[in-house]
Amino acid sequence: MHSFPLLCSFLLCNGLMVAAQRKVQELPDEEEEESPAQIRTPQTLSRGWGDDIEWVQTYEEGLARSRQSKKPLMVIHHLEECPYSQALKKAFASSTEIQRMAQEDFIMLNLVHSSSDDNMAPDGHYVPRILFVDPSMTVRADITGKYGNRMYTYEPQDISTLIENMRQAKSLLHTEL
C-alpha cells in the first residue's frame, strides 16, 4: 500500500523533470535566434563602399555593362584588412556626391583580388587604387590622383580630387566617344 503513493510521487517527479529538460533544451535555440551578436548580415557586393550602388561581380561583367550602357566603369582595388583601404572606403561611402554619381553615371566594381588584366595596374598592384575604363574598353591612364609614385591612389582627404576625376570620366564620354 505504501508503494502506490511512492510510485505516484516518482512518476510525477519524473514527468516534471522531463518537462523541465525540454524547456531547458528549447531556451538556447531561442536565445541564439534573438541574440544580436548571432544575427549575421549577408555579404554584399558593396563591401561597405555604398549599399545603394549597383555593383557588378567581375571585371568582364563590368566591361560588358559599360559597353552596353555607354557609362564608364569605375574599378576600386582594395583589401579588407588594409587600413588605407578602410579609410578611403569610409570617406567614399560618406560622400553624398560620390554616392550619387556612382549610382547614376557609372558601372561600379570593387575588387579585393587582382584582375588578370595588366592594364588595371599601369603603375603597380598597390591598394587602394581607382581606375576608370571607358565604354570602348580603354583604361583611362590619364585620369589620375595627385601622387606621382602611386598615380591611381586616393586618400580620404583626396575626395574632392576623386569627385573631379569622376566628372572628368563622365565628360570624356561626351567629347571622345
TrEMBL record:
This is Anterior gradient protein 3-like. Gene3D superfamilies: Glutaredoxin. Belongs to the AGR family. GO terms for cellular component: endoplasmic reticulum. CDD domains: AGR. SUPFAM superfamilies: Thioredoxin-like (SSF52833). Residues 1-20 form the signal peptide. Keywords: Signal. Transmembrane segments: none annotated. The keyword Signal applies. InterPro entries: AGR/TXD, Thioredoxin-like_sf. The keyword Signal applies.
